[in-house]
Amino acid sequence: MAVEVDIFGRNMEISERLSDYVTGKASKLDRYISGIEETRVDLAHVKSARSVADRQVAQITVRGKKFILRSEERAEDIFVAFDQAMDKIQRQMERYKGKRFRGRGDGTSLSEAVAPPEEFEDEVQDEYVIARRKKFAVQPMDEMEAIDQMNLLGHETFFIFFNFDTNAINVLYKRRDGTYGLIEPELS
Fold first, then answer.
1. Lower Cβ count inside 10 Å, N or C end of the chain?
2. The overall pTM is greater than 0.85
């Protein structure tokens, strides 16, 4: 069963050859993980990129019932960028599948397969380490004030603030193209 692929181009025209190439490769992603509902491929030509090697951008987003996986790669050629993004998304799918769906397969019972809690905690602790915790006071402000504060403080990637328009904590971040993005968390 092949996955349906949506292809979008920005600042470039999608040729039939490119469309066939992308569709042929991306439609086979269901081999790596089942339950894919949507596969979106965004191809772009970024004129303002600093390096010629970063002008062709391929971004692949795969959505399923309980997951969203995304990869983005840049290269001098759009085909190379797409291939690199495909390799990256395939690795992410394998990693996700391994974490979520790996079975025992050796015929052992569940009680034999379950490790003692101490061993499990050690395993998780080795894999994920929080190196630092930081607390800070947030000031109520609107989005424009947050942009000014972000630039004044020299934060180049993100800035956390309390948005008094929405009465919620928001994250402001700087995008690669120089514009800003805003994350407005919601409880689900």
1. C
2. no
